[in-house]
Amino acid sequence: MSSSAKLKIVQKAEESKASAMNEEQRQELIRSLQSGEEISPEWARILFPPEKREYELVYHGKEREEDIIANTLAVPLQKVRTFGKNGDSWHNMLIFGDNLQVMKTLLEMKRAGALCNGDGTEGVRLIYIDPPFATMQEFQGADEQKAYQDKVTGARFVEFLRKRLILLRELLAPDGAIYVHLDWKKAHYIKVVMDEVFGDNNFRNEIIWHYPGREMHINTKFNAKHETILFYARSSASAIRMAQVAVPYDKADRLKGLRRKVHRDKNGKEWVWETRAQSAGQEPYKRYVDEIISQGRPLSDVWSDLQFLRGNHPERTGYPTQKPASLVERIVRASTVEGDLVLDAFAGSGTTCAVAEMNNRRWVGIDCGKLSIYTVQKRMLNLRKDIGTRSAPLTPKPFDLYNAGLYDFSKLKELQWDAWRFFALQLFQCRDEPHKIGGIHLDGYLKGASVLVFNHQKQPGVRIDEETVHSLQEALGSKVGSRMFIIAPALVFDFQQDYLTLDGVRYYALRIPYSIIHELHQREFAALKQPADELAVNDTVDAVGFDFVRRPELEYEAGVNKREGELIEEGFIRVKTFKSEAVVREPVRKKGNRETLSMVMLDYDFDSESDVFDLDAVFYAEAIEQTGWEVRFPVEAIGNQVMVVFVDIYGNEAREVIPGKRFGGGGKANAAETPTNRKKSKKGKRK
């Protein structure tokens, strides 16, 4: 047996202290391992009792459920904008951020009674998610532009989704339901995971969405013409409302299928004898044909009547992996009633949010992509009573747009001290409990240790250096215990260490923002190191804390010209400089600039009065680089003014409003104008 295997068994023995293993057995096993003796097979049943779990999916990196719930950081939500207002206390929610952390925040809302259905039931009645399928392929957006990559594969993908399923389970109402949309690549793994998370007794259906008409000639396999939706209930209290989704009968076909002859009563109404069950001994009963027809055919678990969105389907938004509204509506109507709360943690194009709104349900949509957030925002503000048609407009109920774990630095600087202090304590999940030690006013506790929120507003320009910490130590002494925390803006600290130790007391620097704050919830404190560069953070699947919204440095040119050899004029925006600034992470160490550009989004006819960015086109950095860092678009699309949103790879934005006449809209542009330093200092509007 290898030394690493022995170590794992020793660790298992330590963990088993509170299990069926008694102290004598535990010590004997540890002694045998440490002395190098072979382990008897009888120990297997003690260490891994079969009654604990009949089966489970085992893979590298799998965490305990309780650790996932405890260690996931709840990120404060910063409201960016409210669309529409009324007297109702509930506003629907569109949230930009990592869905795992957002779900922990929603779970706290549920526990506080703030996440409810219309009938007052706490929790979410329905969850529908269409997560990335771990396909190792690049999905294409409108005009073959890349929108995102779902390159999480293997065990990483399974654990990525399992973590979220555990939080989603906790968010469900007692009679709630969850539908997980997958394809054939990972559905079998996730089925086992969901049996484990929700209980196989709560498994209801493997729904097959079969889309006809897709014919491909492949000589290596049969045509793949379906996707899988796994349907689980939260408990036995969950039920589907079959009458809301039953397939209407064709009367003639239904009459042919009736086993007994159709009769007529004295009023001419048609009726038949039917039995309640197939088993013998059941008395037939009388049912009117119109009642049978109106009730409809019970829906099966194979759905072949719902078409895939293809080509120029009027419902298409241009967002990759968009699912048809009819598919999501069937799920919404089957598992909710009006006023119920629907959650989609991978909001994508916003189909779930739109369908929930159209069916008078409450909704919460979460996504980590700016393209998704702008697509959903536009979709909700341009709803029709029937999706994908020119039917009457539908004004959505009020909804709030939030940033999760992202803060507008300029707004934070404007906070009064009490608001800043509250924000700082909440950010690090400290207990707000002012107290005094050695004449020093302290603000609260974190894991039993005192916390000081440094008042940088009262002492502008003052830095926290080693001398500052020495002064604290002189006043506090041993009365403060073995550790203490100091919270302050990252750039206020004059030392790089994560803590300083003086006379046996560790003074920890909690910098705002702190990109790996989640580590504080997983282990006792140790020296925490920042990533070497921005991309090292983006290599991870899950978000790891907080950051500020900071406007990138931007220079650009805009105007109209003709491509070489072409007669038709085009509008262009040439990105000359684009640089992102990160507070706690080291800057990108590459020559030149523009490496952090992610995409450029355009609203061709921006309305200043509404101040709402209405997404018309998106251009991705890879394609922009190939055209000399230029975005090109037809001048005939331009209105009085154009809103341009430049997005970096961290989700930060630089916004510019450009008069349409510079592109030929509302007047011919004679030459390209060059905004430089003036543009660099402009902050731009936020939604």
Concise synopsis of the structure shown:
The chain is an alpha/beta fold and 687 residues long.
Task: Walk me through the structure.
The protein has 5 domains: 51 residues; 273 residues, Vaccinia Virus protein VP39 (Rossmann fold, 3-Layer(aba) Sandwich), CATH 3.40.50; 48 residues, no CATH class; 132 residues, no CATH class; 132 residues. It has 19 helices and 30 strands. α6 runs parallel beside α7 and α11 packs across α12.
How are the SSEs ordered, and which strands pair?
Layout: H1 3-15, H2 23-34, H3 43-47, H4 65-71, E1 77-83, E2 92-96, H5 99-111, E3 124-129, E4 138-140, E5 146-149, H6 154-171, E6 172-182, H7 187-198, E7 203-210, E8 226-233, H8 242-245, H9 251-257, E9 263-264, E10 270-274, E11 285-288, H10 289-295, E12 302-303, H11 325-335, E13 341-344, H12 351-358, E14 362-367, H13 370-381, E15 399-404, E16 406-408, H14 409-413, H15 417-427, E17 431-437, E18 440-446, E19 449-453, H16 466-476, E20 483-489, E21 499-502, E22 505-512, H17 534-538, E23 547-549, E24 553-562, E25 569-579, E26 597-603, E27 617-620, H18 621-626, E28 630-634, E29 641-648, E30 653-659, H19 677-681
Parallel strand pairs: 2-14, 2-15, 3-6, 3-13, 7-12, 13-14, 16-23, 19-20, 20-22
Antiparallel strand pairs: 1-15, 4-5, 6-8, 7-8, 9-10, 10-11, 17-18, 18-19, 21-22, 24-25, 25-28, 26-27, 26-29, 29-30
